[in-house]
């Protein structure tokens, strides 16, 4: 059917208004051309698990102090080497020397009405007061390597030297004394063995999960730290150092996950130099001195602090070199009273006074003799390098001590490994080149070669290391900040009484200010933000600066746990295969907040 001319004209589209073909379109200025807005990065909504975890610490008001009391005792037939818990402390796992893993319900135990019987009280060493009993959920075996002639019905069991658990208790990892790491399910089908990983040639002393919980790190007596991929169950990377037995391993906490109150230690005293001395500062830095220039243009020394008084500069030795806190009762003289700080004030000698003055204090506004001033600075640096060289000699094949140049390139993804000989090594997990992204922390010559436990602070700015002489070294590992020296150093040392014995375990509280250290006699609570600090008159606070946590007495503490909300502290006793006495009790402590 043919359309008429009128209908065809109706179907012709109307012309678009605009310039004709013979006319050119006027050019528009670049400012008048609208630009498409840059795409906003897509923010994924939080999963129900992440929302639940955030609510655990969202409304917490961190106190100024704590009171910790033992309220529950869990007797075990043998010493307990390791502990692990879910983020909310609903599941508590214990790994013992008999090869069994036990799952306890903490809230049912502390809220229930089941108390220890008379035989249990005698077993746990609880003679006074009322102590609640633990509530067990499940228990299962930790199988050893299957040999060809081993009956399937009766597999050999392996002592559990280390444990790590998923934050929602979906699965758990168990390190054995033969070097294998077993993966078990916990919440669903408790105790089902999913996979076994083999690499270590000796006991697996410590395990640490990555932040995304898709991998983990293991440390063994063979001196190797291994990174594992949980998606494949295979080895991802190997960290090899000087071959000493590894005692602890930990991943640096994320700054975004810290909910406590940050605290600033006393800043290192600084002195401003004239612009002409910047060349000499750069020369000293390139020659290997541990000093540099901050963003504000001030010279910061990591082991000597320069203070200006009436036109003269006095040099004060830092606690890193003269480490009275690292007193060893076997070799050193008697220190001050137990639990007290040193009241002596180091008086600078006249030989340490630099000749000349700075421009701000020059009498007639004249500049000092820069050559004399630089010679004085060089002498100071030489004295400091001699003091540093007097530290503990580096073990064979050990990485060098961290310096500002290498440590400035470290990423936040830092791994800490502690060795039985006292060395603590930091690894940049993003660097996979041999000899790069690794360095050890400096140790004083008075520090005994022994370390069974080390951990990060909750904000990741400090490292706590327990020593054989009853002291805990607190390292400042910040890379930036007004009081940062650019390289890790010993910020302070807290010391237990001499009779307390070695420090076998340390654990940090989530507020970033408190620390629990375990010795053979007791567990002590320290406020590391205020301990060994000076008052307004420059005198160190006297008296006992720690609190005794009742419960444990006698024997080594193998591991301690503190939940993210600082409600419970759990302690287990064992020598972890090393020499020492141990008990057969796991204590659950209630942490009360003092606002």
From TrEMBL:
Superkingdom per UniProt: Eukaryota
Biased composition (Polar residues): 269-303, 346-383
Keyword Repeat listed: yes
UniProt domain Transcription factor spt8 beta-propeller: residue ranges: 68-257, 414-591
InterPro entries per UniProt: Beta-prop_SPT8, WD40/YVTN_repeat-like_dom_sf, WD40_repeat_dom_sf, WD40_rpt
Regions of compositional bias (Basic and acidic residues) in chain numbering: 1-10
Biased amino acid composition, Acidic residues: 330-345
WD repeats: 197-238
Keyword annotations: Repeat, WD repeat
Spans annotated as Disordered: 1-47, 258-385
Low complexity composition-biased segments: 304-316
Full protein name: Transcription factor spt8 beta-propeller domain-containing protein
């Amino acid at each position: 059917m043919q359309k008429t001319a009128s209908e065809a004209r109706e179907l012709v589209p109307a012309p678009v208004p605009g310039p004709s073909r013979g006319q050119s379109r006027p050019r528009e200025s670049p400012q008048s051309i609208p630009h498409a807005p840059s795409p906003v990065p897509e923010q994924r909504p939080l999963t129900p698990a992440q929302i639940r975890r955030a609510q655990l610490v969202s409304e917490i008001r961190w106190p100024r102090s704590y009171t910790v009391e033992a309220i529950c005792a869990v007797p075990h037939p043998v010493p307990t080497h390791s502990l692990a818990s879910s983020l909310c402390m609903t599941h508590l796992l214990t790994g013992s020397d008999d090869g069994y893993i036990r799952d306890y319900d903490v809230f049912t135990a502390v809220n229930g009405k089941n108390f220890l019987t008379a035989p249990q009280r005698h077993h746990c060493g609880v003679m006074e007061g009322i102590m609640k009993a633990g509530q067990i959920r499940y228990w299962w075996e930790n199988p050893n390597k299957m040999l060809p002639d081993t009956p399937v019905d009766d597999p050999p069991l392996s002592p559990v030297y280390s444990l790590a658990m998923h934050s929602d208790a979906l699965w758990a990892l168990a390190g054995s004394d033969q070097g294998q790491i077993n993966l078990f399910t916990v919440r669903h089908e408790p105790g089902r063995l999913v996979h076994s990983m083999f690499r270590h040639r000796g006991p697996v002393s410590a395990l640490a999960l990555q932040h995304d919980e898709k991998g983990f790190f293991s440390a063994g007596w063979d001196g190797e730290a291994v990174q594992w991929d949980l998606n494949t169950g295979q080895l991802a990377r190997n960290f090899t150092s000087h071959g000493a037995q590894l005692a602890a391993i930990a991943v640096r906490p994320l700054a975004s996950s810290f909910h406590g109150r940050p605290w600033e230690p006393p800043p290192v005293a600084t002195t401003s130099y004239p612009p002409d001395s910047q060349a000499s500062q750069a020369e000293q830095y390139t020659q290997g001195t541990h000093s540099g220039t901050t963003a504000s243009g001030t010279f910061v020394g990591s082991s000597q602090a320069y203070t200006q008084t009436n036109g003269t500069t006095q040099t004060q030795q830092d606690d890193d070199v003269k480490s009275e806190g690292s007193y060893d009762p076997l070799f050193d003289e008697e220190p001050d009273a137990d639990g007290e700080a040193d009241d002596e004030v180091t008086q600078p000698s006249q030989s340490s006074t630099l000749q000349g003055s700075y421009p701000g204090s020059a009498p007639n506004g004249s500049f000092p003799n820069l050559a004399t001033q630089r010679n004085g600075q060089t002498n100071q640096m030489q004295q400091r390098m001699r003091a540093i060289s007097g530290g503990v000699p580096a073990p064979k094949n050990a990485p060098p001590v961290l310096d500002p140049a290498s440590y400035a390139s470290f990423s936040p993804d830092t791994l800490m490994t502690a060795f039985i000989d006292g060395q603590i090594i930091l690894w940049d997990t993003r660097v996979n080149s041999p000899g790069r992204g690794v360095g050890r922390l400096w140790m004083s010559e008075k520090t005994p070669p022994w370390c069974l436990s080390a951990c990060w602070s909750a904000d990741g700015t400090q490292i706590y290391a327990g020593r054989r002489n009853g002291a805990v070294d607190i390292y400042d590992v910040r890379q930036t900040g007004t009081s940062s020296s650019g390289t890790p150093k010993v910020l302070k040392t807290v010391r237990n009484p001499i009779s307390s014995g070695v420090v076998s375990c340390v654990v940090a509280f989530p507020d970033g200010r408190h620390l629990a250290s375990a010795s053979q006699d007791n567990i002590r609570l320290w406020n590391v933000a205020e301990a060994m600090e000076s008052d307004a008159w420059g005198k160190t606070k006297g008296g006992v600066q720690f609190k005794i946590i009742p419960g444990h007495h006698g024997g080594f503490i193998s591991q301690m746990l503190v939940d993210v909300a600082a409600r419970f502290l759990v302690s287990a006793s064992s020598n972890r295969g090393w020499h020492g006495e141990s008990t057969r009790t796991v204590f659950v402590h209630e942490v009360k907040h003092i606002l």
